[in-house]
Automatic annotation (TrEMBL):
Superkingdom of origin: Bacteria
Domain HTH arsR-type: 7-100
Keyword Transcription assigned: yes
Pfam families: HTH_5
Keywords, alphabetical: DNA-binding, Transcription, Transcription regulation
Protein name: Helix-turn-helix transcriptional regulator
Length: 109
């Protein structure tokens, strides 16, 4: 039995749901990891976390429209839906990812 995941289409993706999904530091870190454009095994997105926690966070990202989940055997491959998000909310991911990288830089003042 294969798993099927429902992904919202462009019209179903709302700014409120995207911002909610990105408001959690764990999910924001997952999006940062996915920003390289590569598909990543869901378990690699949450190293050290229980599978149920990873599933919870990846479900919220998927239902917000930020990610695509593709089952393959026992694995789930997650990718960022950059084109959809950029088309719907131009510059949003770039700003969020830039803010995240600025927050991780050391303060030299």
């Amino acid at each position: 039995m294969s798993r099927k995941y429902i992904h919202p289409n462009r019209d179903e993706v709302s700014l409120e749901r995207v911002l909610f999904a990105l408001s959690d530091p764990i999910r924001l870190n997952m999006v940062r990891m996915l920003a390289s454009g590569a598909r990543i095994n869901s378990l690699s997105l949450g190293l050290g976390m229980p599978r149920s926690t990873i599933t919870h966070h990846t479900r919220i990202l998927r239902e917000a429209g930020l990610t695509r989940t593709e089952p393959e055997g026992r694995n789930c491959w997650i990718s960022l839906r950059q084109e959809l998000i950029e088309d719907k909310f131009p510059g949003l991911l770039k700003i969020i990812l830039k803010e995240q990288s600025l927050a991780s830089e050391p303060d030299h003042t």
